[in-house]
Amino acid sequence: MTPQNSGQPNSLGMNLDFYTILLFLWRRKWIIVFLFIPIFALAEIHVLRSPKVYRAQVVLSIVPQKVPSSYIRSTVSGDMEAFIHSIWQEITSRTNLERLIKEYNLYPNMAKNVPMETVVERMRKAIKVSRPRGGRRNVFIISFDYTDPQIAAKVVNQIASVFIEENLKLREEQAKTVSAFLDEELRKIEDELRRRELAIQEYKRKYMAELPEQKSSIIAILDRLQKENETLQMRREMLQDRKVNILQQLKKIEQEESKLSLEGDIDSYSGSLAMLEKKYELLRMKYTEKHPDVIRLKRAIELRKKEMGVDSSDENLDDVQENDSLAKLKSQLAAIDKEINRINGSIQNINQKIKMYQQRLENIPKREQELKDLTRDYANLMKTYRMLLDKKIQATMAETLEKRQQGEQFRIIDHARVPEVPVSPDVKKILMMGFVVALGAGLGLAFLLEFFLDRRIYDPSVLEGFFDVKVLATIPMVLLPRQKRLLLLKNLVLALIALIGLSGNAFLAYKISQNI
Quick check: 405 pLDDT over 60? Predict the structure, then answer.
């Protein structure tokens, strides 16, 4: 009986243990070795044939503006990532990259065989901007990958210098753009303010007497006009009463004259002295002193006075006084009529003024609302103008700050040095991957042959698993001396070939170590 195997049977019906695995590896050793050697050699050759690419890098720092932002606020965009991206687009433009390619004779073989656009795109991919891991946010790195380490260092230093220059230029242009925009907006608002001011002035000029501030004056004027109207009306009533009295006096005199004219006879001149004098006054009112009737009547009065012994001088004085009183009454009546007409005109004028001022007083609420609408828009514009003016002053100071290069800017804190170790190809990574692939390919082919392609059975447990029988004994292979010599020779030849292959792998590894 064969001893029991300590391994557990697998799906193939055999027990897998360390000893079984060693036997499997020993049987398939040449397949594993001869598949490993060429695959790993290919990886080594790839490392040797791949061009070495060196990475030169410059470290830049963002230096804050020299004047505190609490005094002068910068008008340049505060998003530094976006700002760096905009500068980066300017630097990696075809014009700048083509200039660098021609200046440093970059990618000479490629430039001869492909269009310049392809070369520029290749260089654009070789330039990178990154931030150091765990570093400060105000520090970033510009790197350039190229086959010549010295040229890589020169190019990346040139790119960093251009980057700083473009930053200063872009910041100044952005500050100028903001100032120009604010200037344009201020001019527009100033023009609009002038138009609104002219509109308000024209409105106030047109409705000067109906403005809200005139309300108290209009009320005072209306009160004064009402009082003047009342005073004139009282005076007119007084004059009308006086006129009535004078008219009554004149009417009485006319009645007496009519009575005298009916009772007296001008031709006979008879009657009392008083009656003759009355007749004389009536004639004097109609005729002059040279009229015959007046002369005859005057003589009759003088004769009557002589007959009655009356002094003619006293009577003449009384006649003159009596004639003056009548004329005075008529003069007063004419003056009263004139004054009444004047007062009526004044009352009519005052009533018109009262009506005009009342209309103005009624229009004040309407004008007040209209003026409020005008002034409200003007106030809003003025508020906007003052706000823009403050921003314009800040923008002007910020522009001056950028022109003097005292704003936020970039500074090189670590210039690019000539790199000594290439970043491509990654020798360790490629060799490790080549080793794993080569070993895996050998083991995989050995496993495929052992369990799927080779029909021979090397382990009794396989029989027990497939046929459900017990193996009582195993007989080892018996080789003849000649067969043993052939097998030994075969193994020696294969070992020599494997040794040569592994030596080749070692030599390639040595060459790789020398080139690193």
Answer: no
Q: Which residue has the tokens 């931030």?
A: 131
Q: Which residues have C-beta within 8 Å of that of residue 141, sequence separation ≥ 6?
A: 57, 58, 59, 60, 129, 130, 131, 132
Rounded CA-CA distance 246/332 in Å is 8
Closest CA to 243 of 231, 255, 235: 235
Q: The sheet that has 409-414: what strands, in order across it?
A: 127-130, 139-146, 54-63, 409-414
| Cα 339 to the center of its chain, rounded Å | 75
Can you tell me which residue has the tokens 């003052």? 386
Which pLDDT score is estimated for 1? 34
CA 382, CA 377: separation in Å to the nearest integer?
9
User: Can you name the residues that pair with 143 across neighbouring β-strands?
Assistant: 57, 128
- Which CA distances in Å does 120 have to 146, 148, 211? 13, 17, 74
Among 133, 68, 165, 77, smallest CA distance to 411 is for 165
Question: What DSSP assignment string belongs to 155-200?
Answer: HHHHHHHHHHHHHHHHHHHHHHHHHHHHHHHHHHHHHHHHHHHHHH
Least confident of 29-38, 121-130, 266-275, 327-336: 266-275
Strand partners, 8: 16
Long-range contacts of 501-507 (CB under 8 A, 24+ apart): 501/33, 501/34, 501/37, 501/38, 501/41, 502/33, 502/37, 504/37, 504/41, 505/37, 505/40, 505/41, 505/44
Instruction: Compute the distance between CA of residue 86 and CA of residue 91 in angstroms, rounded to an integer.
Output: 9
DSSP state of 452: I
Distance, CA of 495 to CA of 109 (rounded, Å): 45
Backbone φ, ψ for residue 468 (5° rounding): 55, 50
- What is the distance between the alpha carbons of residues 42 and 36, in angstroms, rounded to a whole number? 10
Q: What is the pTM assigned to this prediction? A: 0.51
Confidence (pLDDT) at 440: 92
Q: Distance between CA 170 and CA 83 in Å, rounded?
A: 9
291 DSSP assignment: S
C-alpha–C-alpha distance, residues 144 and 155, integer Å: 8
Q: Which residues pair with 128 in a beta bridge?
A: 143
DSSP 408: S
- The amino acid that residue 27 corresponds to is R
Half-sphere exposure of 216 (CA within 13 A, CB side): 1
Contact by Cβ (8 Å): 14, 457: no
d(CA 278, CA 284): 10
